[in-house]
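Minutes, structural biology subgroup

Action item carried over from last meeting: produce the structure token record for DUF5615 family PIN-like protein (Methylobacterium brachiatum). EB confirmed the sequence was re-checked against the source entry. Recorded below for completeness.
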Amino acid sequence: MYLLLDECCPKSLVGIADGLGHTAQRTLTIAELGRQATDAAIFAFACEARAIVVTVNAGDFLALAARVPDHPGLILRPSLPPGETGQPFRKVLRAADEALRKPGGVIRIDRAGRLHRSGAS
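Output recorded by EB:
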């Protein structure tokens, strides 16, 4: 999977994704997006690049996704201190291959580590 990590995601998630065989890139490192890119710009870039957006900003991205039913997918994670993000992110990525196989899927991990799937998956 190609994952587009919103700027709210720590750098460590790139290494975790890479270690599990995925390609991950932070919005901060993409020239067309950079620091403080709007959610709409991030979502449009993700749709064009067929990237799954990883973010803590569920509300805005769910609203954007509702307008594009065949979006590449969303991974919604809780806002946690950087040292606590690794294990839940590994868990969601292991489930995401199946859950986000079809366009329009959303997978959310809550603060307790439970996974919730919705959309086309």
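Discussion: DSSP finds four helices and six strands in the chain.
Next step: EB to file the record with the rest of the batch.
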